[in-house]
Amino acid sequence: MTLFVVASLLARGAQLERLSDGITLLALGYGLAPLLGAPIPPLASMLCATLLILGLLHKYWAVRVALDADLFARLSISGDLPSDTGLLDRALYDLRLKANGEDARDWPARGKAALALLRRQAMCLGLQLLLTLTTLLTLPFFG
Questions:
Q1: What is the DSSP string of 8-30?
Q2: Whole-model pTM?
């Protein structure tokens, strides 16, 4: 059941990803406004660049979290967890997604590591939201 709970928590990363994608697309659209002849101040350009970088970083963590969510969901219904664990480690190694073909960690340790990825994803979104909200709240004062 622990694997299923971890998979369910990791699946929430998709919701975070959608919100981050929206912010990133808005920053991209605003940053490309000069191509349409609309001038934007240099500070706004730096803001857009920062939001885009955070969005790309968020996307990286989101892909990793989504992969882990699928793997944990699959293994939560495994009939032979030790065997499937070995097969998973070997498959990840064969695809060069893992440095070793064997992993001595137990599933609670793997779950904690996967949830750490979700926290990194959430941190990127939090920084995007903080930067966006700070800008919106200070915009009236700086024009």
A1: HHHHTHHHHHHHHHHHHHHHHHH
A2: 0.83
